[in-house]
Structure formats: structure tokens, C-alpha cells
Amino acid sequence: MTAPRRVALMITCLADMFYPEIGERIVRLLRRLGVGVTFPAGQTCCGLPLFNSGYHAGAAAVARRTLRVFDGAEAVVVPSGSCAWMVKHEYPGLLGDGADGVAARRLAERTYEFSQYLVRGLGRTEFETAVSGRVAYHDSCHLLRGLHEAEAPRTLLRNLRGVEVVDLPGSDECCGFGGSFSVRLPEVSTAILDRKLAGVEASGAGCVVACDAGCLMQMQGGLGRRGSPVRAVHLAELLERERGEAP
Amino acid sequence: VSEPVVTTPLRDRARHALGDRFLHEALDIATTKFIGLRREAFGNFPEGEQLRDRARAIKEATLQRLDEHLERLVDSVERLGGHVHFATTADEARDIVLDIARRTGARMAVKSKSMATEEIHLNDALAAAGVTPVETDLGEYIIQLAHERPSHIIAPAIHKTKGQVAELFARELGREVAADPEVLTRIARAELREKFLDADLGITGANFAVAETGTVVLVTNEGNGRMVTSLPRVHVAVMGVEKVVPSMTDLMVFLGVLAKSATGQKLSVYTTLVQGPRRPGELEGPDEFHLVLLDNGRIAQIGGTLREALSCLRCGACLNVCPVYRQIGGHAYGYTYPGPIGILLTAMLNGPRSVKDLAHASSLCGACAEACPVRIDIPRMLIALRKEVDERKIAPWPERVVFKALAWLLCHPALYRASARIGRVLQRPFTRDGRIRALPTLAGQWTKTRDLPPVAARTFQERWAALEREAR
What we know:
By secondary structure, chain A is α/β, with parallel strands linked by helices. Chain A has 12 helices and 10 strands. In chain A, the strands form 3 sheets. Chain A has a 4-stranded parallel beta sheet, with helices on both faces. Chain B is α/β, with parallel strands linked by helices. Helices cover about 50% and strands about 10% of the residues of chain B. The longest helix of chain B is centred in the first third of the chain and has 23 residues, at about 20-45. Chain B is elongated and about 95 Å long. Chain B starts with 9 loop residues before the first helix and ends with a helix. Chains A and B meet through α1, α2, α3, α4 and α8 of A and α1, α14, α16, α17 and α18 of B.
């Protein structure tokens, strides 16, 4: 377990604007684990929406800014698999072979998606939760197929006492978000979402857990519109403190 | 121009497909089945992953020296007594086949399933020239009766339920037909047997052609490929230039992954190897054999953005796993090749303008790249196409302005923070019980079917100072 114990939080635009409590949760949890958390000023967005839509000059400008913002960080923790993927996988290619490219590769190596930081970086897998009952886990596409991570979040969830992780058929299938795809082809995006939510509701879970703010926005958007009692929550919202630690 | 001009916007085509209950039922059953079968096939085959890497490496190496491999293929086929033709465009390919039909006095052509002949719209051209084309693959036979086009690369009638097929047959035959696949197949079989015997021309595609031996390889399940290549007087195979493989050993690698990816079979029921025309002393086979090598935009991509797509085996696995394809089916894509790989092939054949909207018909979930037997990174190329559409100013100008403004905003943190404050003011009239249920303009595309969370009363950035104090 070699990850640095001082990290900078990359909050990401969606979590910053719409789900700030995810960031608060992560900061408090990491501090309880003895990890020093900084929050470098001047953060905006990783540039993934620009990159995926093909606006690569703009995405590169945003990426260069992000490099400078996190220049001094020993490690960077990101609450969304897609943004972590952007930094780890797309920044180096986007910024070429010059000094920026070198810096991008260094940032890529030091950047961790949240669940990967806990499990693979710190080796901490046993936590307490305030939630009880059944939960379903949704594999976010970029975390699963981009960062090849199916296990870390599931390990964390399975180790929670009082929580039963139910089998979600098609858990590895897209929720239909896809950034601008969700408004370019909204009917298709919603049809894909409906399929996902039908599975979630049939699973008997009280909440569906994901590690990506995009998927949460899409799934909660659909659940809310259906008037469903099921909630879409970020993994961090379930982790109160490490097991054995005083409340 | 070989492609029909698609006039309705993609979004309307998709909406139309989403409203088709039969399509939805047929697609859901078939793709779910294909996904399960493929998974099982590779699950029982631990060497599969390595074989996929080898298959891709062979494709890459072959592309490096495509000209040499094609020359070798030409030599081999000619040595066997066959004729090889090179077609730069779809028009040229059609003319070559029509010339052969005219010269040999053909009146009827039986065809085995071929996407290459779909790509060049051969059937219409044959019919116009007085040669009746008869599709003999069951799925192709069905859609030919229905005057439709394939909606899947390997399962052309995937969009139809068995009930719809029974209705179609009943209409054609003028009698009641049971919605039972076995009954339906028997009817098609009886109808087709006569055609095989009457046809002058047999037209096929080719899954592979082996350069060292001149062997054209057809991977099928119904046996119709054998009839098409052995009974008529003349056999014409139409093949994209990228389908050449160097040796029989290489062929074995591809056969090891193709059927598993396509249908979950270890091998297809028939693997037909054709070598030129009938030789002296042989009982079966055509008098003439022609191989049409089709470029149609492929060669330009050897050094282009879409190079990887030239490794495609046309197995259809990426369609089956694609969440978009599974919802809208193949016809909504509007061109010969549907699904994720189809978008790339459409761009290859028709240029980037044709995929202005199609390039965005993907959530970039990556399921296609994962399923692809030769690991083609389809999402990466979709993004590259989007980039091309932007840079060549094919994308609509309001969109380009919006994204440029977004990039500018994201480079100015103070403005980005101000946008949160402005959002909080603007959202007030639309927010109730902590959610937004209806918004005007583009955001309304979201809220029509989904709630939107409002911008938080205090963003994380605005909360950080308090969090920092907590730590002390």
C-alpha cells in the first residue's frame, strides 16, 4: 500500500455544483483515516465534456489549467470514475510529448478514483455505515471498462455490516447518461435508463450505489421522476468511518 | 452516390424506432441471447483472450503490407483459373458484376449473405439489368420478401418477431402459416431449393480470402453458401480489400474467435473453403470464378483516423452489446452498416459529413470495444470523428459556439464560480422540493423525462473554508 497519505481532492464540476455533500463526506472520511486533504483553489472541470464531444483544443486548454492547479499535489483523489479516467487516460495523449505531456503523465500516475484510493491505495476495506438494508451496485462505464475496476467498490459495500449487496442483472450496462448524449438523443438516453432502473427496482434494493456523479444524476433523475422510493447515492455517502474507530 | 440520402433527422428515426413495440421485443430477445451465448463461449475457452490478441496482431501486420498480400491473393486465384477484378468505388463493383452477368447470359442470381453486396446496393442493380436476385440466407430471404434492408450485420431480420415473419410468409403464399421457426424455415427451404437449381449466377461475399492459397472462406450456418458456390455456372465473390489474410494458419486464428463472438458457437455449422472454378475431374463447382476486390474508401483509411476499423470481422458483437443499438435497432442508423462499428464504416464509405449526428449516437460506454474480438477501440474513433466534425465546421455553428464558450468558462475559475451563483438565481422559479422538473431550452431535453438536481445552496468550493476550519 504505497499511496501517499497527503492528497488533494479534485471535486469535479458535477459534485461541486450538485452534490457537494459527496465531497464533504470524502474529506471527513479521509481525515479520520489519517489522510491530510487539501483542496487546491481554482478548480473547474476536468474537460471530459469537451473532449468527448470532439472539442479537443478546448479540452487541452482546460487540461493544462488542471495540471497547474494540481502541480504540487502528492496524490489526487477524484470521486468520479469518468473524471479520473479523463485525467489518467486522456490527458497524456491530449497534451502531447512536451513539458505538459510529461506533467500529464506524472499527474496520471498520482491520480486515484475514490474507491481505488481506499482499497488499492490505502488497503482499507472495512467501514461502518449508518445505512442498513439492501443496496445494488451500478458499474459506471469509465470505472469498469476504463479503469478496469469492478471489485474495489463491491468489496467496500460487502464489508459493511447491516448491508446486503443484491445481485443487479446488467449492472455493467450503461445507465444512458453519456454526457451530451443525454440531451442530444434524450429519448434513447431515457430508454436506456428505463431498462437500468427496471433492473434496480426489481432487485429489491433501497438504493443504487455508483462511483460517478454523472450516473447518479441520470439515475436519480429517472428515479425521482418515477416517484420511486429508491435513491441513487455515491459510495462515499455510505461510508461513515472505519470499523473499530470511535464514532 | 451509392447510399440513399437520409432525410429524416437521426433523433426522429430513433424516436420512431423506440415507438415500435415489435422491434423492441424482437431486439431485446435476440441481443440478450447473443450476449449470453458469446459470454458462455469465451467463458469456456480460456485461450480466447490470447487468440483475440493474435487475431488483432495478424490484422495489423496484414494492413502494414496490404498491397503485397493482395498481389499474392491475385496470383493465387489466377493460378487456380479464377479472375480477379479491382473496384475503386461501389459503382465500379456493381458494373463489374453486371458485366459478368451480361456476358454469361445470367437471368437469375442466388446469393448467400453478404454485407459487401449490400454496401454496393447490388440487388437493385441486378434487378434493373434483368437478373433476378434471390437471397438464400433465411434472414436475408425474409427481408427481401419484406422489401427491407438488413438491420444487423449477421442477423439481418433481427428486427422482426416470428409472428411478423409468419404474417409475411402468409401474405406471400396466400395461406395461413404458423408462427413456428421450424415451419417457417421449411417453407423457405422448399421455395429456395428450386432457385438453387435454376440460377445461373451464385453471388457471395467473403469472410476471408487466404493470400497464399487463393481460398475464399465463407462462414455460414445454413448450408446455403455451399449451394450458391457449387450449383450455378458462375460464382462471383465480392469482398472488401481488408478481408485478405496471409495464410491458412492465420485463418485458423480468426475462425477461432469469429463464431464465438458472433453467435457463441465454437465454429459455425459450415465453413466453406472455395478455390477457384471447377477443375478437370471435379463433379461440382462453377465454370467461372470471379473475385471482386472492393476498395470503396477502405484503402484511404490505412493511414487514416479509422484504420483500426479495417480489422473488423463483421461479427456483430458490438451491436448486440450496444445500449443504443439495443434500443433503436439497425434501420434507425440509416445506412448499410448499423451499430457502433457501423458508424465508423459509414464514415469510411461516405465521409465525415454522413456521420455528423451518428457520431453522437453513442454514450461511449465502451461495451463495444470490450466485446470486439479484435479489440477495436470504437469509442476512441467515435470521438475522433466528432473532432473531425467540429474541426471541419460540419457541426452546427451554435453547437460550436456553445462548446467554445464552455471551454473559455472552464478556463476562468472566477467565472465558473459565478455561474453557480447565477444558476441558483435562475433556477429559483423552476425548483420545488429540492428538484427541477421542467426547464426551457436545451435543458428541457433533460427535464422532459428526468428530474434535475438544483445547483446546491452552497457549492463544495463555498463549503471548503468551513471544512478547513474543522480540521484545526
